[in-house]
Amino acid sequence: MRRRYAISYDISDDKRRTRVFELLLGNGDHVQFSVFLADLSQRELIVLRTKLLQIINEREDQVLIIDLGKETRSLDASLEVIGRSYEPPSRSMVV
Fold first, then answer.
1. Which of 12, 21, 38, 74 is most buried by a 10 A CB count?
2. What is the pLDDT of residues 18-65, one digit of tens each?
3. Distance separating alpha carbons of residues 42 and 1, to the nearest angstrom
């Protein structure tokens, strides 16, 4: 079963921040400056946490992982936007 997670980070070091950004980009949708939405299985979440722990400095950095519920729930049902409307990133297959 897959669940939807909001993942945000606060990392001051440019190198670590870039590595976390690239890792999350491969696992979810970049929705705001340091915020991603990701639909992950339990196994994928464990792998992601492990990789994050290998990148961040646990004393200086912070990554928040918020469980938004089952992936089957519509994002529109979970998301309230104030201001400019949210437009999901378009995904295209590269061959």
1. 38
2. 999 999 999 998 888 999 999 999 999 999 999 999 999 999 999 999
3. 8
Q: With contact defined as beta carbons under 8 Å apart, do 41 and 1 qualify?
A: yes
Per-residue exposure over 44-81, b if at least 16 CB sit within 10 Å of its own CB, e if not: ebeebeebbeebbeeeebebebeebeeeeeeeeeeeee
**Domains of the chain, start order:** 3-71 (3.30.70.240)
Q: What is the rounded CA–CA span in Å between residue 47 and residue 89?
A: 24
Give the closest residue to 60 by CA, choosing from 7, 13, 3.
13
Instruction: Tell me the residue type at 63.
Output: V
Q: Report the alpha-carbon distance of residue 68 to residue 89 in Å, rounded.
A: 19
User: Does pLDDT of 76 surpass 90?
Assistant: no
CA atoms of 55 and 94, how far apart (whole Å): 28
